[in-house]
# Entry
Amino acid sequence: MIEETLFSRIVNGDIPADIVYQDELVTAFRDINPRTPTHILLVPNKVIPTVNDVSADDESTMGRLIVVAQKLAQDEGIADDGYRLIINCGDHGNQEVYHLHMHLMGGRPLGPMLTRKQTD
# Structure
């Protein structure tokens, strides 16, 4: 059995959050420590620990995450200028909560995804 997570507790209403979207497959809420003017987390309602744990049965949920992200980008007024969708996976990907989640970030220029490592 998969353990309850911080995000599953938000989905279930056990922890308050600024929920901006919820349906039978996904929930989206504002990040409590936003890095950009718009910073929304989208999570599957079902606990999927990492991208590596996604199965064929999860295809509709994963597609819904993208469709909802697109809708929220429109609603937030950031779709035309652009935005970033980020899913971190595992320790090296800097995943902090082991409940798959997508960051929708925008509202200002975000710069390069990664900076090049300087060599001498």
User: Anything to note?
Assistant: The beta strands are 19-22, 26-30, 38-44, 83-86, 102-106.
